[in-house]
Amino acid sequence: MTLAFLQTFHWSNALSLGWFLLCWVGYSYFAHYMAKRTHSLSSVLHDHRVNWMKALLNREALVADAALISNIERQVSFFASTTILVLAGLLAVIPNIGTINLLLTEIPFFEKTSESEIQLRVMVLCCIFVYAFFTFTWAMRQFGFSSVLMGAAPLRKDEGSSQKQRNQYARYTAKMIDQASHTYNYGLRAYYFAMAIFPWFISQWLFVGATALVVAVLYHREFHSKPLVTLRTLAKMNKD
């Protein structure tokens, strides 16, 4: 059993998996680096969150703001729950690896692989979704922290706080929401890269290509998408 599992780490499997990890980790660092130097969804949304928190401090009632943050929390909760279901399905697949291998042989361009190789790919998927689950639950907690900060916000009608203090509070609250959103984004990114694993069941070359395609899609959406153009335009209008 041990020998069969070690055989799955053939140089081609090792290179494919290494390419996958390089793309995932490398893109994460690249996106974080570029967000500080050029316009991206993350950087532009930060400005809008600061404006949101400043507007919040001038409102009489925070019902709408509470509803907005609760809606985001529900989205994160949905993905956390879905991830548990996906993990349960993947664990149920492991005892039936042989049957799955037979079904895969009927797919065109399928590269003949051993059951231990299929098992390796399923286990990689399991690891990705375990990471996604912990990421989503941490994002939920951070959005909860943000709710507390919003509830404790020093409103304009409250005495004992200056405009400077309120602006500083707004920036730090926006930063907390930023951190929660980044964590949520990491979980979503795990789903994107998990999609690249499925072509690996058919061909290693498809896996390599799918991984590169995921990076291209993420890059385009983060730095060149139409929503980014709209958000930048609105940010400029707010500054003017």
Structure description:
It comes from Dasania phycosphaerae. Keywords: Membrane, Transmembrane, Transmembrane helix. 80% of the residues lie in helices and 0% in strands. The chain is mainly alpha-helical and 240 residues long. It has one domain (41-239).
User: How much is the radius of gyration in Å?
Assistant: 22 Å
Overall domain count: 1
Q: Give the structural class.
A: mainly alpha
Spatial shape: elongated
Mean of pLDDT: 89
End-to-end distance? 67 Å
Q: Specify the biggest β-sheet.
A: none
List the helices and strands and how they pair.
Blueprint (H helix, E strand, L loop, with lengths): L1 H6 L3 H25 L5 H16 L6 H31 L3 H8 L10 H37 L11 H35 L6 H20 L2 H14 L1
Tag the structure with descriptive keywords.
240 residues; mainly alpha
Quick rundown:
The protein has 240 residues and is mainly α. The chain is built from 9 helices and no strands.
